[in-house]
Amino acid sequence: MTTPNKTPPGADPKQLERTGTVREIGSQAVWSLSSCKPGFGVDQLRDDNLETYWQSDGSQPHLVNIQFRRKTTVKTLCIYADYKSDESYTPSKISVRVGNNFHNLQEIRFRVCAIS
Length: 116
Known about the structure:
9% of the residues lie in helices and 20% in strands. By secondary structure, the protein is mainly beta. The chain is globular and about 35 Å long. 1% of the residues are buried.
């Protein structure tokens, strides 16, 4: 069962965190990537700097795995992508999957990204 997203599209996640509307819980998880170029890994993906980023280095699909140590409710997922900065690495499709382990993941959201 899914809960409708009540966060307005385009809302600034940092502003929402400052006002107490959302809470960043990514630090409670173990993050891994299907591949990355040296210097463009998890640390750059998570550093809150829009000038740094994750850059994959391998065949598709490119995956970001976020594993929590215990069952965790995630109500909002914010992803920043900048097509104008690097169109070749901007995702065209995003799939969000959940499960108890990597082998029983079920897709709960699929989005074809608008490229502008």
